[in-house]
Amino acid sequence: AEARVEEGEILANATNEVRSLGNLPGNMVTPEVVAERARTLAKEAKITCRVWDLPRLQKEGFGGIVAVGKGSENPPVFIALEYMNGPKKQAPYVVVGKAITFDSGGISIKPAANMDEMKFDKMGGCTVLGIMKAAVELKLPINLVGLIASAENMPSAAAYRPGDIVTTFDGKTIEVLNTDAEGRIVLA
Asked: CA quadruple 188, 57, 70, 100: dihedral positive or negative?
């Protein structure tokens, strides 16, 4: 019973951290803040964390996330967390989430009603952080990789536009018909 209570506490704490981060507004959680949370988790949990900043994203051809983040003064980041506690030859489980810290819809701007709730477009990435935290604290005997694509989708003179062609990491191109379809573009 004690082991089950401890497991429940770990899962509840991870869930609460996801909710707490998710509830914070865009002026308090930028892509860099998500990256800092990942770095802190990695340091505390003794797992690997790598963060691609804007120059590295551009250099390595992460055209989707770069395009989505162009309209914001807060540059995008891509985060990779690795927890390797399984057999060396075991292929890792991989969890992927987007953390759009605020989604205005970009040039294809959303209606004003309920736009304040677009702070929740980061919940997939926040959930990846919670999963990684729980896996470490539960000492799961697995290999686990967490990937987070984080950007803000904002309208500005620098923002990507409907009709733009974006080249993604794998070399495929996307014709942007609506800038509010940013989730699939950052993940691509």
From this structure: positive
The 3-state DSSP class for residue 39 equals helix
Which residues, 6+ apart, have CB-to-CB distance to 185 below 8 Å? 64, 65, 67, 68, 166, 168, 174, 176
- Per the CB < 8 A criterion, the answer to whether 136 and 47 are in contact is yes
Rg of the chain's alpha carbons, rounded to an integer?
17
Q: Rounded mean pLDDT of 152-165? A: 96
Active site residues: 110, 184
CA dist 97 → 23, 44, 154, 186 (Å) = 17, 21, 19, 10
**What CA–CA distance (Å, rounded) separates 175 from 148?**
23
Residue 140: which pLDDT band, with cuts at 50, 70 and 90?
A: very high
Pairing status of strand 143-153 against strand 93-103: parallel
State if pTM tops 0.70.
Answer: yes
